[in-house]
Specification:
The complex is a heterotrimer of chains A (760), B (152) and C (283). Helices cover 28% and strands 52% of the residues of chain B. Chain B is built from four helices and seven strands. Chain B has helices at 13-21, 23-28, 117-121, 123-145; strands spanning 2-9, 33-40, 43-52, 55-69, 73-82, 87-100, 103-116. Chain C is globular, with a radius of gyration of 19 Å. The chains are: A alpha+beta (760), B alpha+beta (152), C alpha+beta (283). Chain A binds chain C through residues 117, 120-121, 124, 622-623, 663, 667, 674-675, 679-680, 682-685, 687-688, 742-744, 747-748, 758-760, and chain C through 1-2, 37, 42, 183, 185-191, 257, 259-260, 262-263, 266-267, 270-271.
């Protein structure tokens, strides 16, 4: 990947990760390694019914097992937290099930012991009796089903635009978002062609190799929570709210994370360990197993019906209906429904648009953000749809896209004008690297070959705040304090490079202090590829503030402007010894205008992310096996701050989405997940990955970004699924509309196309 | 998990209905059911034990006849939890009897769900076990209506 | 996991003596790759595990009277790298490279791979196709069982609870050629959705007789006798396809997370023919 450095040469340089050596030598700090004095371990007893009233809960056998310290139920929790409901969008999730359970795997009770094996053995001795109630699992059925997951909706006050949902009854719709622009009815009436297709994305999950883990301890000043969280500031605020405490009595510390991908956002285990610590007055730690991750958070399964009007090769109208399967608790689903929902028509210049996006409760594991915040589900549908239309109209798929894409200055569905979004550049580079103009060998015999492309885009969640502190010590060494969580994406290194660029010192010399809410300032969360842009600005501003203060110090001690005097000498001159600090601070919140009644706003997002993928495949027509032989990922990341990390972010995102495309799926039977292990839920391993995989950041600048940069963590996911489905149709003439693209599905489609469908 | 099957027995429908309506007889056709006790009208409690290789699972179950439509149909529901491991088993069965000549055709459809640990990890092997039990059930049912010397 | 007793006998005889014919909570453990999963899941709670790791007499690989004899606690990785194995039956070496991963092969043993009786294991169909047998040690002596007769069901063998597999014997192959094809449907590294092992006696491309075994898609590894019949005397590719058709017709297949029975039937059809082709092209 090209290196484009600027100014001090720190931005644009592939600085090796600051934490690399510590990680590969096993010295990096993780919550899993924490042992606190007198610490109790919690093991969770989980629901075995999808929807039901708890008739009785018998914990006597568990309590009687030697070595068990205590068994805790919601009644105990309520003695320390009277209203134990939490959640970022809705206060709908109880710390432990309260009278009712809403999905299989929901926490019902916790056993505490110093020995985790005893706690686990005791948890299996708990007996619960349930009165089973009708359950609903499918997002379309949830729209109208008689089975209602929650008796009453309880939106959190956090988002002002959800307040009207408070107290709504007899509905599974947590949020519905609607957008109307232009006159779609007229566009469809006047169209040459109308196409309508429906696509489905399956339920998958994050599966970070470090499962969820949190520990809490009481201190003389309050409560300290050690947690593998992507959102330490949110955890502090939400725990303080639950306890009715001031924020400064809650301290949240986050070391490195072994992956997050959106799973470890908002509150997961933190409220539970806080309650258990307050109940027992002893430190409590809960570490989930891999299996338990399946009962904590998934990605939204989604159904997307998309309809387009075509006139003279141009898309003149588009109707989008999206149903998001949110599971039993809203988590951040309503945000996805709206913030991603408004990009459902895709990166195309369409004057007449209608969008209806529904966030639905079902009796499944809650769904939340997963690397793309809903975008991969949308791109899967609209880019499959794009190719299907091009094929039907006998148009070149690249040219059809080029004729319709959004160019800078043109209004996106919300009415927000596109700016610094290199959609055309991504399409061009993709077409070039895929050699789309050249003839293609489609294979023969029983092995057919095909190729396909897809492009997608995403708006950044807005408005959100980041704050950073840069501390220059008396010897000139620099420390950065910020609450961005390095979960493997390389944010410590990137933030250090931004400080280094401003202060003109090597990035490697900067120390980055990890999130500790007693020490590091507020940050909304590490999510949605927002950090490099938002925290990047805060870090830049803090460094510039420090630089200005250093200049003032120099003036104060009589050093002429532009003199090359070492920083340590400035401090020496002022304090007559090695003493003192310079503290620079920076705070950033972008401007934002909330959508009006029609879903329209002139300022929907501070920046756009653009990503595209090209795929070449081989299909074994005798078995349906698909081998992806080449995967090209191209993205607009603005100016790459660290080209090497940018490349690994693109490839990591693409591989993750490749797994969601080809092989991963949560299997369900009556609401029970039946493949809750790595043995049966197959994430890609090195042998699954396409033999040729290339990643490229196109030449571009994010005008409003720090040093022209913007986020990159998700862009590699956008185009993967539709590019591969498009390539499969190109290879063997069959179109799949439901993920994952398994060999059996391809084979069945081939048989159906021959008029010899395979029996069920 | 859904299972359906059918078998024909050389007995008149009314007689077959009488037998399969009797929970004790029905339970005797399922391998591993013991301690059957009536706990209410058309409601029974029992212990169900099953073994997969060297692993043994015991379930405390309740069985209820949820609908009896003489002489053609019986619906039953089974519900229970395994001992010593978190989980739950629920099953509904519909048995339909049709007259075929002098004999009776028995159609059965079972819809079973296993949740908790066994449901999340043990599906393939438990499916296999269920298929084996189903075969045994059909064989015992058939044997009950055959002239005794023809027992398998 | 709950506490249990761990015994570490030094001899096979001692190990057999520590087992209990009537108590299923007493189990032998070798590599533990399968048993530990059952224990961690809580579905198996042993009272006593008899570790076979310290038994030295069970780890040899030798050729005795033209037959390959492998001690039961030989790790799969040792088998994989054994020159004697590669010379005697190269299909075993090739199959092992697709079996799970290096970490598992380093600890899992030959005896465990057979005694565990999960139909998704890779070695059983290969060994059946090669006509292998196991020597089983019990309290009252040893007996020999063809691998083809070892499996009684999912996780079930014909072994008594106080019997141990002592060794595996693979007879001389006398120029027979063999192949094992592993078909996965969820990921490249996965348990097979279907395993097909074949061994053929052939004159050039003309098959004199064939042994055809399928696994993973069935409750236990199964010989496909109709397919074997169709393959014997085959001289062209159409005959190999007919063998595939015969196997598809006779196999009793199960639906699971890796595919429906109807789909697996088609996989059997295709893979049996491919395996025969591979065997004809193999050394």
């Amino acid at each position: 990947m090209a290196t484009r450095t600027i100014g001090s040469g720190q931005v644009g340089r592939s600085v090796p990760r600051l934490e690399g050596a510590a990680k590969v030598t096993g010295r990096a700090e993780y919550v899993h390694n924490i042992r606190l004095p007198k610490m109790l371990i919690g093991k969770i007893f989980r629901s075995t019914v999808a929807q039901g009233r708890i008739k009785s809960l018998d914990v006597s056998a568990a309590r009687a097992l030697p070595g068990v310290y205590r068994v805790v139920t919601i009644d105990d929790v309520k003695t320390v937290i009277p209203n134990p409901l939490y959640g970022p969008a809705f206060h709908d999730q109880p710390i432990l099930a309260d009278g009712k359970v809403h999905y299989i795997g929901e926490p019902v009770a916790v056993v505490l012991a110093t020995d985790p094996y005893i706690a686990e053995a005791a948890a299996s001795l708990i007996e619960a009796e349930y009165e089973e109630l009708p359950a609903v699992f499918d997002e379309i059925e949830a729209m109208t089903s008689a089975a209602v997951v929650h008796d009453e909706l309880r939106p959190a006050g956090t988002f002002p635009d959800l307040k009207h949902l408070k107290g709504k009854k007899n509905t599974n719709i947590a949020l519905d978002f609607h957008l109307r622009r232009g006159d779609p009815g007229k566009a469809f009436a006047e169209a040459d062609h109308v196409f309508e297709h429906t696509f489905r994305s399956q339920q998958v999950l994050h599966l970070p190799l470090e499962p969820f883990v949190s520990a809490a301890e009481l201190t003389e000043t309050g409560l300290t929570i050690h947690t593998a969280s992507q959102s330490p500031s949110f955890v502090r605020i939400e725990i303080a709210r639950l306890l009715g405490w001031p924020e400064n009595k809650v301290r949240v510390k986050v070391p490195y994370l072994g992956g997050g991908f959106g799973a470890k956002l908002y509150i997961k285990l933190e409220a539970m360990v806080a309650a258990l610590t307050l109940l027992t007055r002893r430190p409590v730690k809960i570490s989930l197993t891999m299996e338990e991750q399946f009962y904590t958070l998934t990605k939204h399964a989604a159904t997307f019906r998309i309809k387009s009007a075509i006139k003279n090769g141009r898309i003149t109208g588009r109707d989008c209906e999206v149903w998001w399967n949110g599971g039993a608790y809203a988590d951040i689903g309503p945000r996805i429904t709206q913030k991603s929902g408004f990009t459902a028509p895709g990166p195309y210049d369409i004057d007449n648009v209608s969008i209806d996006s529904y966030s639905l409760y079902t009796n499944l594991t809650p769904a939340g953000a997963l690397r793309g915040f809903g975008i991969p589900q949308l791109v899967w549908a609209y880019e499959s749809h794009t190719d299907m239309m091009a094929r039907a109209l006998k148009l070149d798929p690249v040219e059809f896209r080029r004729n319709n894409i959004l160019r800078d200055g043109r209004a996106q569905a919300t009415g927000t004008a596109m700016k610094d979004a290199a959609i055309e550049a991504v399409l061009d580079r993709l077409a070039l690297r895929m050699n789309m103009k050249a003839p293609f060998d489609h294979g023969g015999g029983t092995v057919k070959r095909g190729r396909g492309i897809a492009i997608g885009f995403k708006a950044s969640i807005s408005p959100t705040t980041s704050i950073a502190i840069v501390n220059v010590a008396a010897d000139g060494s620099v420390t950065l304090y910020c609450s961005t969580v390095d979960m493997g994406q390389g944010s410590d290194t990137a933030n250090a490079q931004l400080v280094a660029e401003v202060l003109n010192i090597p990035a490697e010399s900067i120390k980055v202090v990890h999130p500790d809410t007693d020490v590091t300032p507020y940050d909304m969360a590490t999510l949605g590829s927002r950090s490099l842009y938002h925290m990047g600005h805060a870090v830049r501003l803090a460094a510039e503030d420090a630089k200005a203060k250093l200049a003032a110090l120099a003036r104060e001690v009589g050093v002429p402007e532009g003199a090359n005097v070492p920083v340590a000498e400035l401090f020496q001159k002022k304090y007559k010894m090695q003493a003192g600090n310079i503290i620079g601070t920076g705070s950033y919140i972008p401007s934002y205008v909330p959508p009006d009644a029609n879903g329209l706003t002139p300022e929907a997002t501070p920046f756009w992310m653009v990503g595209g993928t090209g795929a070449e495949v081989e299909v074994d027509t005798e078995t349906g096996h698909v081998r992806v032989t080449k995967l090209i990922n191209v993205a607009d990341v603005g100016r790459p701050v660290n080209p090497r990390i940018v490349e690994t972010q693109l490839s990591g995102a693409a591989v993750m989405q490749f797994g969601f495309t080809m092989q991963e799926k949560i299997e369900l039977d009556g609401g029970q997940i039946t493949n809750a292990s790595f043995a049966d839920y197959k994430i890609p391993s090195i042998v699954d990955i396409p033999p040729v995989m290339q990643n490229e950041a196109v030449e571009s600048e994010q005008g409003s970004g720090p040093f022209g940069a913007k986020g990159v963590g998700e862009s590699g996911t956008f185009g993967v699924s539709p590019a591969i489905a498009n390539a499969i149709e190109d290879a063997c003439g069959v179109r799949l509309t439901e993920l994952p693209l398994t060999a059996e599905k391809v084979y069945r489609a081939l048989r159906a196309a021959q008029g010899k469908p395979l029996e069920e | 998990m859904k299972f359906t099957g059918a078998l024909s027995v050389p007995a008149p429908r009314a007689a077959v209905y009488e037998k399969v309506r009797d929970a004790r007889f029905f339970a005797s056709c399922i391998d591993g059911v013991r301690d059957l006790a009536q706990i209410g009208p058309d409601q029974y409690a029992a212990v169900f034990e099953t073994k997969v290789a060297y692993m043994k699972f015991s379930f405390k179950v309740t069985v209820a006849v949820t609908r009896a439509d003489p002489p053609s149909q019986i619906e039953a529901a089974v519900e229970g939890a395994p001992l010593g491991i978190v989980g739950r088993m629920t099953a509904t069965s519909i048995t339909t009897l049709t007259e075929v000549g002098d004999g009776t055709k028995i159609d059965y459809a079972v819809d079973a769900t296993l949740t908790g640990k066994l449901g999340s990890l043990g599906q393939p092997v438990l499916r296999s076990k269920a298929r084996e039990m189903e075969k045994q059930f059909a064989a015992r049912l058939r044997a009950a209506f055959e002239p005794s010397e023809a027992a398998p | 996991m709950t506490p249990f007793e761990l015994a570490e006998p030094k001899t096979l005889k001692e190990a057999v003596g520590l087992l209990d014919a009537d108590d299923p909570t007493v189990r032998p453990i070798a590599g533990g790759t399968a048993l530990m999963l059952m224990m961690k899941a809580g579905v198996f709670r042993p009272s006593k595990l008899v570790s076979l790791r310290a038994i030295k007499e069970l780890t040899s690989i030798e050729i005795v009277k033209g037959e390959l004899t492998v001690g039961a606690t030989t790790p799969l990785a040792v088998l994989e790298h054994s020159e004697a194995v590669r010379m005697h039956a190269p299909v075993i070496t090739r199959a092992l490279r697709t079996l799970s991963n290096i970490r598992v092969r380093n600890v899992a043993t030959v005896g465990g791979a057979l005694a565990h009786a999960d139909p998704h294991m890779d070695l059983p169909p290969v060994l059946i196709a090669l006509g292998a047998r196991v020597v089983v040690q019990g309290r009252s002596g040893a007996r020999t069982i063809p691998v083809a007769d070892l499996f009684a069901g999912y996780f079930e063998t014909v072994l008594a609870k106080d019997e141990l597999i002592a060794s595996l014997i693979v007879p001389a192959q006398d120029g027979r050629r063999a192949a094992y094809l592993k078909c996965t449907t969820r990921a490249v590294h996965d348990w097979p959705a279907l395993g097909v092992a074949v061994s053929v006696a052939a004159d050039g491309k003309a098959i004199k007789n064939a042994s055809i075994v399928i696994s993973a898609a069935t409750e236990t590894p199964m010989r496909m006798s109709a397919a074997e019949k169709a393959a014997s005397g085959a001289t062209d590719d159409a005959a190999l396809r007919r063998a595939g058709d015969a196997a598809a017709a006779e196999a009793e297949l199960i639906s699971d997370g890796q595919g429906s029975a109807a789909y697996k039937k088609e996989l059997v059809r295709v893979y049996v023919a491919r395996a025969l082709r591979a065997a004809l092209g193999a050394a």
